[in-house]
Structure formats: structure tokens, C-alpha cells
Amino acid sequence: MSETTTIEGTILAVCIGPGGIPKHAVPEARATSNGLVGDKQRFRMHGGAKRALCLFSSGDYASLRRDGVACEQPGSFGENVLVEGIDFKLLLPLERLALGDEVEIELHDVREPCGTLKSVDARFPNLMLGRSGFVCRVLREGLLRPGMRVRRA
User: Fold this and answer.
1) pTM for the full model?
2) 73 φ, ψ to 5°?
3) How many helices (DSSP H) and strands (DSSP E) are in the chain?
4) How far apart are the C-alpha atoms of 16 and 30, rounded to whole Å?
5) What pLDDT digit, counting tens, does each position of 3-59 carry?
6) Which of 88, 111, 83 lies closest to 99 in space, CA to CA?
7) Which domain holds residue 55?
8) Does residue 97 lie in a domain region?
């Protein structure tokens, strides 16, 4: 991707949960190197420092809804941060994003959709390929809340 490509959007929702899906939107949450405070994962391989946050696009939500997936509430896919205004096709692993003024993340990898998502739609995980978001490392910790700006760091 070209360094001149503008990457800028807004956090629509910050989501946590006790493990599994869905997660639920909260007014704010602290991002740490191990994930959002209060968020849990049911399976060990779903978390960890390189997978501390799951970043998802509102554009992919809209695309999945057009395909008949019932996903009205943020957190439906187990994402921690739902972002509006960024074309995720322009993002690549190892790219860094600033979330608000405090938090900096690194896109570790494209999220590989797993079988847990079948509870959302029986066509998953295959239907989600190419629109599953990113798992991210938290490089700089801080508070996240809806309305914060997202941009290239």
C-alpha cells in the first residue's frame, strides 16, 4: 500500500465478553498488551499478546448483512473494536494504527474465522473469508471509547 493512501476512520463500538461470542458493547475499555480489560477468550489460541485485540470493519458488517447474516449488534463476530470509514482491503499485517490519542496497535495478521462463528450463521466460517478483520498487538496502552479517531500511526 502507498504511504500516501489516507487511512482514517472512527471507532463505532468497543466490545468485551466473558468468552465466546457475541461480545457486548461497553462505553469504554482499557486496551493493554494482553487485550481489553474485562474481555476473555474461551480458547487460549484466541488471545495472547499478538492477538490482544480483534479489529473489524463496519463495511464488512454491511456486506455480511447483505448476504443475509443476522449481525445487528456490535460484537456479533467477537470483535473488540468496530471501525467505520476505513477500507480494510487497504490494510496489511504489520501496519500500525493509532486509536484515539493514546492507543497504538499493530495489525498482526488477518483474522482466521473459526468454527465458533457457526453459531452466528451456519455458512461460517467460509462465508466470512476476506471480511474477517485483523488480530492486533497493542503497542501503546490506553483507553478506548466509541467516537475516537482511527488513523495510520
Assistant:
1) 0.90
2) -95, 135
3) 1, 11
4) 11
5) 557 899 999 999 999 988 899 999 999 999 999 999 987 655 556 788 899 999 999
6) 83
7) 8-152
8) yes
Q: Count the domains in the chain.
A: 1
CATH number reported for the structural domain that contains residue 22 in this entry = 2.40.33.20
Which among 44, 45, 71, 55 has a CA at the least distance from the CA of 14? 55
Cα–Cα distance for residue pair 87/109, rounded to 1 Å: 16
Here the cell at position 104 is: 497504538
In contact, 28 and 143? CB cutoff 8 Å? yes
Q: What is the DSSP string of 88-148?
A: GGG--TT-EEEETTTEEEEEEEE----GGGGGT-TTTTGGGTT---EEEEEEE-EEE-TT-
